[in-house]
Specification:
It contains 16 helices and 15 strands. It is of the alpha+beta class and 399 residues long.
Length: 399
C-alpha cells in the first residue's frame, strides 16, 4: 500500500494553492489520487502535473468573443448544426435526428443557455479540456441524467432536481437511464461573466449578484451540488420552458439573472446540498439486477433474494436502484410490467390471461385491476380503443 499525503501537504510541496490541487485531482491529472468524501489523498512523492493552462490560446468565434465550453462540445462529432437563427443555434444528434436536439441561446457575455431534448440511452464519453472556471447549472424537467466522474463515482439528476457543478470536476461519461431527458443547462464562464453580472447588480441596487460567492456557496471544493429546486427556483425554470417566442431572448436574460439572484439568496443547508455518489461496481450491479428482472417478468423475487443473489447489501441496493431509475425496485418493475403488457395488447393477438401471466401476474383479475388503475381502461378496452383510432390494417391484423 502506498503512503498518502493530504492536499494541504501537497500544496506546500508543489507551491500551489489547495484549491488548484483539488481541481487537478477532479480532472484526473494527479496519478493515483483517491477521493474520500470531499477530501483527496495523494500518493507520497507524486510530482506536480504540468499546468495545461500556460501557453494555451483561447479560441475566437465569428463575433470576436471568446468561446466558452458548451454542451455541444460534450457530444463531439455526434452533433451537427441544424439551424442558425439570429437569436439561437439548433443542433441535432448526427446519427438519428429523432434522438436528440440542443438549442443554444447567448444570455450575456460568458453565459449561455441550452434547451436539451434527448431520446436515447447510449453513453457519451467527454474528453473536452476545461481551461478556466466554468460553472454548469442543470435543471431536469423529465427523465434522468447519469454522470460518471473521474474517480469512478456516479451521481444522478432526476425530474425537479437542480445540479450546480464546476467543470474542473467534469464528468468523464454521461447517459440517460430512462432513454429520454428534457432539461435546461446554463453555462457560466465566471471570469468573463463577472463584469456583466456586476453591472446588472449595480442597476438593481443589489450586492448579492456575485458569481465567485455563488461558486463558493454551492460548489465548495469544486464538488457537484445536487438539490431539489425550491418553489421559487422551480417557478423560474417552468417559465423558461414556456418562454414566449416573440420575447425569447430578452425573457431568457431576465430569467437567468433572476435565477442567479435566487440561488445567491437561497438558504441551502448541508443536507440539501450534499450529492449522493455511488461506486461504479454498485451501479453495474443494480443495472445487472434491472436486466435480470426485466428478462424474467413472469417470475417473482423478494428484495432479500435479489440482495443475496447479486451480493449487494440490501440498503445499498434499494438506494442505488432508486437513484439510477428514479423509483423503488417494485414500483419500477410494476410500471415496466404494465408498459410491456400495453405493447403486447397493441402488437399481438395474445389473450389477456396469457399476457397477464407473461408479465408476472398469476391472476387475470389482478392484472386487469392494476392495468385499469394506470391506463384508466381495462386491457380489453385499451386494445379496442387502439384499433378504433384508425391504424393501418397491417398494424391492426397483428392485434
Amino acid at each position: 500500500m502506498p503512503d498518502y499525503v493530504s492536499v494541504k501537504s501537497a500544496a506546500l510541496q508543489w507551491g500551489v494553492s489547495e484549491r488548484r490541487i483539488q481541481k487537478l485531482c477532479g480532472q484526473g491529472r494527479v496519478g493515483g489520487a483517491v477521493r474520500f468524501g470531499r477530501a483527496w489523498a495523494i500518493p507520497a512523492g507524486t510530482c506536480k502535473p504540468p499546468d495545461a493552462r500556460h501557453g494555451r490560446k483561447r479560441k475566437k468565434n465569428c463575433r470576436g468573443d471568446t468561446e466558452i465550453r458548451t454542451n455541444i462540445e460534450l457530444y463531439g462529432d455526434r452533433t451537427k448544426l441544424l439551424l442558425r437563427k439570429k437569436e439561437c443555434v439548433v443542433y441535432q444528434l448526427r446519427d438519428d435526428p429523432a434522438s436528440g436536439s440542443i438549442t443554444k441561446y447567448e444570455v450575456l457575455p460568458g453565459i449561455e443557455l441550452f434547451y436539451n431534448d434527448f431520446c436515447l440511452s447510449e453513453k457519451f464519453d467527454h474528453r473536452v479540456p476545461v481551461s478556466s472556471d466554468i460553472m454548469e447549472i442543470n435543471h431536469c424537467r423529465e427523465g434522468r441524467f447519469e454522470c460518471e466522474f473521474q474517480n469512478n463515482e456516479f451521481a444522478y439528476l432526476g425530474s425537479g432536481d437542480l445540479a450546480v457543478n464546476m467543470l474542473w470536476n467534469q464528468p468523464k461519461t454521461s447517459c440517460f437511464p430512462l432513454s429520454h431527458y428534457q432539461g435546461i443547462s446554463i453555462i457560466i464562464d465566471i471570469e468573463r461573466a463577472s463584469k456583466p453580472i456586476e453591472d446588472v447588480s449595480k442597476i438593481l441596487g443589489s450586492d448579492t449578484l456575485d458569481l465567485h460567492a455563488l461558486q463558493n456557496k454551492l460548489c465548495p471544493e469544486n464538488s457537484c451540488c445536487i438539490l431539489r429546486a425550491t418553489d421559487s427556483i422551480q417557478h423560474i425554470f417552468s417559465e423558461l420552458y414556456r418562454a414566449p417566442e416573440c420575447l425569447m431572448c430578452p425573457y431568457i436574460k431576465l430569467k437567468v439573472i433572476e435565477l442567479i439572484l435566487f440561488l445567491s439568496a437561497a438558504n441551502t443547508d448541508c443536507e440539501q446540498r450534499r450529492c449522493r455518489y455511488f461506486r461504479k461496481e454498485q451501479i453495474e450491479t443494480v443495472k445487472e439486477i434491472r436486466r435480470y428482472l426485466t428478462e424474467n417478468l413472469s417470475r417473482r423475487f423478494t428484495l432479500t433474494e435479489l440482495s443475496e443473489q447479486f451480493h449487494i447489501p440490501l440498503t445499498s441496493m434499494k438506494q442505488c436502484f432508486k437513484s439510477v431509475w428514479g423509483s423503488p425496485i417494485y414500483t419500477y418493475l410494476r410500471d415496466y410490467r404494465l408498459h410491456t403488457a400495453a405493447a403486447m395488447l397493441r402488437e399481438t393477438e395474445l389473450g389477456v390471461a396469457e399476457i397477464a401471466w407473461q408479465v408476472g401476474y398469476d391472476s387475470p383479475a389482478k392484472f386487469s385491476a392494476a392495468f385499469k388503475q394506470t391506463a384508466s381502461l381495462s386491457p380489453s378496452e385499451y386494445r379496442k380503443n387502439f384499433v378504433r383510432k384508425g391504424y393501418p390494417a397491417s398494424d391492426r391484423n397483428n392485434l
